[in-house]
Amino acid sequence: MSTTLLSAKNITRRFGGLVAIDRVSVDLNQGSVHAVIGTNGAGKSTLVSVLSGEIPPNEGNITMLGKDITRWPQPDRARAGLGRSYQRTTIFPSLSVHENCRISAQSNHQKFWRWAFPASKCTYSNEAADRALELAGLAEFADRPAGLLSHGGKRQLEIAMCLATHPKVLLLDEPLAGMGAEETDRMLNLLDSLKKEHAILLVEHDMDAVFRISDEITVMVNGCVIAHGDPESIRNNPDVQTAYLGEEE
Ligand SMILES: Nc1ncnc2c1ncn2[C@@H]1O[C@H](COP(=O)(O)OP(=O)(O)OP(=O)(O)O)[C@@H](O)[C@H]1O
Fold it and tell me: Do 161 and 236 belong to one domain?
């Protein structure tokens, strides 16, 4: 049986009078890609931000490996093994691919008492960056300025920057946005190779990709979960079909 690494129960987040997410529950299990899909404004990114600790929930609780992390700030969650990537690309374009990963690793492994020691010589961070680039299939581009990578390469680098912090749980917000077929294929293969060791939450609009890669899917509409299950049951769910057909109309 797979291990539940992160569990969120009855999460509600309001912005003024707007209920962006309403009593949403999700479990993230090692070895599994759990996609969260839904129409525009359904609350998917808000859910990711609450899980990552960027914004607090108004109600509900989040546990990671049995610990209640609901009130933990983002850096503490990151150190406990929670990694997130963003909808927009967040790399340092003038630094090398390796330097981007090293800085990410360092942010999770700060040694304030070693202030006189050059950060670039930190063995831990350099090794974490090497490993992350290897895992993400970017080792051959290590010395290239990050800004010169293709769009797909930059999104891969974002995942590598996440991996450099040694996460157990990956929260990925639209990692396929703007990608062509070949880049999408490469990213899906990467996610597939990562899921054995990680629990992955995937927010994504590309439905072909979602149905190809996911082990379970949660569907949100207007802040609420309307369905949860394996890809086959979601594909055949009449409420899901109505929600998506309604959007097309
Ligand atoms: N910081 C904020 N302040 C006020 N309202 C917000 C804020 N962030 C999100 N919202 C609102 O909360 C609702 C959910 O937004 P969210 O971005 O989570 O949806 P989403 O499902 O990720 O949408 P999309 O697929 O378009 O990215 C929307 O109505 C949005 O306008």
Answer: no
